[in-house]
Specification:
Elements: E1 4-11, H1 18-30, E2 35-42, H2 49-59, E3 63-68, H3 74-84, E4 89-94, H4 104-112, E5 117-124, H5 129-146, E6 155-162, H6 163-172, H7 180-186, E7 191-197, H8 210-224, H9 231-257, H10 263-296, E8 303-307
Parallel strand pairs: 1-2, 1-4, 2-3, 5-7
Antiparallel strand pairs: 3-8, 4-6, 5-6
Helix pairs in contact: 9-10
């Protein structure tokens, strides 16, 4: 019996890219020794993406569509694709063709060699620009310093996992604030890295603004590290040392001059102390917000409709 590959594709306002993506990816998948299914997750697109996906599903029964009731985000879309997948191996990728479909045979070959996790490591992404490339590499360096889990630099949302590995993610990694590519590297199993060069977007523009990237990065760090919570200890120690130094200086100044000249020093010290205090309060508040989201236990996503899934798969 032939094995089956599930390709999970997250879509948000990608109407200009979908047909070309389907054409190129289908050509690659048809050449593989595995059966396949193409699972498109429509993440509340506001353009004609869903209409195009439904047309593709009518033309090809191997195209399956999951349509969210609204926009839940890229991470939720990939998790939904994993939940609905039925393949022996699963490949997650984006619909803008920056993740090259021609890399899929290498992922399938890695599955056949017995690997459960295949990280696609981006070596070049000229379309992202110098700032985003620098920010991405800096983010991975920072989180590797802060977290006990060591992440592969420049690993992307383009990855492959076996059915065994996906079951772990489905059953146990259900956080509301999440970093899926981090979870993929965190679950263990035999893994392999494959390098690739990101292609230019076939159409449209990036859905991640600078604000979204910063929010995403902060939440990711807090999901994998409690070191920011310990900043209060370090800040308190530094402030204590500075306070002791100011006290010594004040006593010395009083002994030498008779009247301590400390207005500027006290002002600077108070401003510094309040800045540290508000920073720590802000960090604690962010952790509490993450805990609050988990305690509410609202669904990661809500499915509005599906196409080409049988009852067992749903």
């Amino acid at each position: 019996m032939r094995k089956k590959l599930s390709v999970v594709v997250s879509c948000y306002n990608e109407e200009l890219a979908l047909r070309q993506f389907y054409k190129e990816t289908s050509q690659v998948l048809k050449s593989l020794p595995w059966d396949y299914e193409l699972i498109f997750v429509n993440d509340g697109s506001q353009d004609g993406s869903l209409d195009i996906l439904n047309q593709l599903a009518d033309e090809d029964e191997r195209v399956k569509v999951i349509a969210f009731s609204r926009n839940f985000g890229h991470e939720a879309a990939m998790i939904a694709g994993l939940d609905y997948s039925s393949g022996d191996g699963i490949v997650c990728m984006d619909a803008d063709l920056q993740h090259p479909p021609e890399c899929i045979p290498s992922i399938v070959e890695a599955f056949q060699e017995g690997y459960h996790v295949i990280n696609m490591v981006r070596t070049k992404n000229e379309s992202a620009g110098k700032f985003k490339n620098f920010a991405s590499s800096s983010f991975y360096r920072l989180i590797n310093v802060l977290s006990d889990v060591k992440f592969e630099p420049n690993a992307s949302d383009f990855f492959g996992i076996s059915r065994k590995a996906s079951k772990v993610l489905k059953d146990h990694y259900r956080e509301k604030v999440r970093f899926l590519r981090g979870y993929v590297q965190n679950i263990g199993f035999k893994r392999k890295n494959i390098e690739y060069e990101a292609r230019s977007r076939v159409a449209g523009e990036s859905k991640y603004s600078i604000k979204k990237l910063i929010t995403f990065s902060v939440n990711t760090i807090m999901c994998f590290s409690n070191l920011p919570l310990k900043l209060g200890i370090y800040a308190g120690a530094i402030a204590g040392i500075l306070g002791l130094a100011v006290m010594i200086y004040t006593i010395w100044s009083w002994a030498q001059v008779g009247t301590p000249n400390g207005y500027a020093t006290i002002t600077v010290l108070i401003c510094f102390m309040f800045a540290v205090l508000f920073l720590i309060v802000g960090i604690i508040g962010n952790y509490i917000a993450i805990l609050f989201a988990e305690l509410k236990d609202r669904p990661i996503y809500i499915v509005g409709e599906t196409r080409n899934f049988n009852e067992e798969e749903e």
